[in-house]
Amino acid sequence: MSFAQSVKRVVGTGSVAFSLALGAAGVQAQEPIRIGAFLAVTGPASFLGDPEQKTLEMLVDQMNAAGGVLGRKLQLVSYDSAGDAEKARTFTKRLIEQDKVDVIIGGSSTGETMAAVPLVEQAGVPFISLAGAVVIIEPVKKWVFKTPHTDRMACEKVFVDMKARGFSKAALISGSGGFDKSMRAECLKVAPANGIEIVADETYGAADTDMTAQLTKIKGSAAQAVLNPGFGQGPAIVTRNYKQLGLTQPLYQSHGVASKEYIKLSGDAAEGVRLPAAALLVADILPANDEQKPVVVKYTQDYKARFNSDVSTFGGHAYDGFWLAINAMKATNSTDRAKIRDGIEATKHYVGTGGIVNMSPTDHMGLDLSAFRMLEVRNGTWTLVK
Description:
- This protein has 386 residues and is an alpha/beta fold.
- It has helices at 3-6, 46-65, 85-97, 110-123, 151-164, 178-190, 212-219, 234-244, 260-266, 293-307, 313-332, 337-345; strands spanning 8-12, 15-19, 33-39, 74-80, 103-106, 127-129, 144-146, 169-174, 197-203, 225-228, 251-253, 274-277, 350-351, 356-357, 373-378, 381-384.
- Strands 2-1-4-3-5-6-7 form a seven-stranded mixed β-sheet, sandwiched between helices.
């Protein structure tokens, strides 16, 4: 394994270090609270992991500057999984057994997350995933939570909007990744209950660079609108091909592309595209009385000031995961793993970047459909659909 593949990043307690060594960094008067993470900082899913890593680093530094938590400093121990499930499994094991972290926040993608689930469940370590598929929290797993909206919720939000626009026939074009497959399956399940008939169902591979063949079939179908479950560069290619072929049906994307990067990659072809997303993407145009506005505005300002780049909902997932863990420690006055788990599960009315979170023993995400805002690309930026 190369250095790039096994790099360990340690942030907090007054130092930033990169090291392959897994031993203790030195005895301190009081042990730090260790927050573990494995994130796709590099590789094809880096648009997810990079803002997640930066967000966690920023929050740890902010918290330590304010005195830490429960009188102790925080330490972020993070590994770059590069979106690889096998690496995620290896790093999760390392975080649990060698780094002895108190909580794990991570799993940029569904594949990485599901590779870690058996390990955290067996070891009894609270784990807050940053991935989207509903399988992460259904069925409920004792030690596993997640911050993003589910793929099923995205399907439902899109179908509600389609119906409001008078559409009843839709086409799907989805990628081959774990999230893409999961969302496609969820959309097929919930379409009938939402009054939508799926009249075309096309897929594309992870390495495909042209989707005109699939879109040509959709163009010849009875579809009144098209939904593209997916993330990464695939949806941007679909969007560009969509315009090239002259399709006139409204195009919807998933929350898997909820960042400015999607608009940049799609260019002017993104004009008019709709997708469900968190309030974070439209922080500046939220109504003044919106309960989430102070939270998303502050995070947006802090992130831009430190990194000179725009926020994405993916960094927001890490923001919410961090605060769910910290709030649980404060509420239980403990860093005991079991008590942190119980504190997370007892979360009520946490106002985050993704929505208002209300956890329970039967709901380890805590968001409902109101957490999604329907957005539309206009003049190269996000706007709120009224």
